Amino acid sequence: MDEQKRQSMIAYLRRKMAKVGIKVGDVAAAISEERACQKSARYRSAFGDTRDGKGDMPQWLRQATSAGQSLAHFAVEKSSMSNRRGRPAIDWSRDPFAGTRLATVRPT
């Protein structure tokens, strides 16, 4: 986005905010509150629903776990990244089975 479009959009938003009675501080507080909520989230769905791990399990997570999905599937990056650091990187570029059915079949 070029600078002229950016400034035009900012002016437009400020006019709309003034018309409705929203102050810049209100927007900043809402963004800050949302970020704090996202940082405390331990589980997140694909639709943006979050859970911090306290209290009753929300319905979306209860339904997913009762359908067979694990809690680890919904874990937020910060907990899953710590598990991945210990694993060595694998170079799959020379895998002769890449792209074939043999690459996806798991041994039983």
Q: Enumerate the spans where pLDDT stays under 50 for 5 or more consecutive residues.
A: 79-83
Alpha carbon gyration radius = 22 Å
Biggest sheet: strand arrangement: 1-2
Largest sheet: 2 strands, antiparallel
Bin the helical content: 40-55%
As a percent range, the share of strand residues is under 5%
Question: Describe it for me?
Answer:
There is one protein chain. This protein is mainly alpha-helical. It contains 4 helices and 2 strands, in the order ααββαα. A two-stranded antiparallel ribbon has the order 1-2. The longest helix is centred in the first third of the chain and has 18 residues, at 3-20. Mean pLDDT is 78; it is low at 79-83.
Topology:
Layout: H1 3-20, H2 24-40, E1 43-44, E2 50-51, H3 59-66, H4 77-84
Antiparallel strand pairs: 1-2
Keywords:
108 residues; flat
Quick synopsis:
This protein has 108 residues and is mostly helical. Helices cover 47% and strands 4% of the residues. It is built from four helices and two strands; from the N terminus they run ααββαα.
